[in-house]
Amino acid sequence: MQGLASLARREGTRARAQLRASLRLHRRLGDLWRLGSVLEALARVAADADDPVQAGFLLGAARAVRRRIAVPVPAVERPFVAELERRVGDAAEIARGEHAPLEEALAAVQDD
Questions:
Q1: Of 61, 86, 101, 110, whose CB count within 10 A is highest?
Q2: Contact 89, 52 (CB under 8 A)
Q3: Distance between CA 69 and CA 38 in Å, rounded?
Q4: Which segments of the chain does DSSP mark as H helices, in order?
């Protein structure tokens, strides 16, 4: 939640650090449902930092996670994801993220 609050306040550096910590925790717990949401939030951080390639890749990875566990984007998060999809607009990067191994997506946000 802290990461989302920082994201809402446009504190990109802080949001990224908090969301990365959240991603590690959800991965360790095996919580793929929340992991998808965190990947979407990290995609928003990338979009806000003018990195549409990273944003598209992470958005695609979140889609893949949701497909894997057969759940849609939660209703409360749909406007956030729809707006992000409009901003990213790069279907090729989204598709690359959808087909990449989950570990590749996780590594993409853990490595700087």
A1: 61
A2: yes
A3: 15
A4: 2-8, 12-29, 32-48, 52-68, 78-88, 91-99, 102-110
CA distance 81 to 41: 9
Amino acid at 5: A
Q: Residue 58 corresponds to which tokens in the numbers above?
A: 């992470």
At 47-83, the pLDDT tens digits run: 999 999 899 999 999 999 999 999 999 999 999 999 9
User: What pLDDT shows up at residue 61?
Assistant: 93
User: 69: domain range?
Assistant: 2-110
Closest-CA residue to 63 (of 44, 83, 81, 45): 81
- pLDDT tens digits, one per residue of 5-43: 777 788 778 888 899 999 999 999 999 999 999 999 999
Total number of domains constituting the chain: 1
90 burial via Cβ count (<10 Å: 0-12, 13-18, 19+)? middle
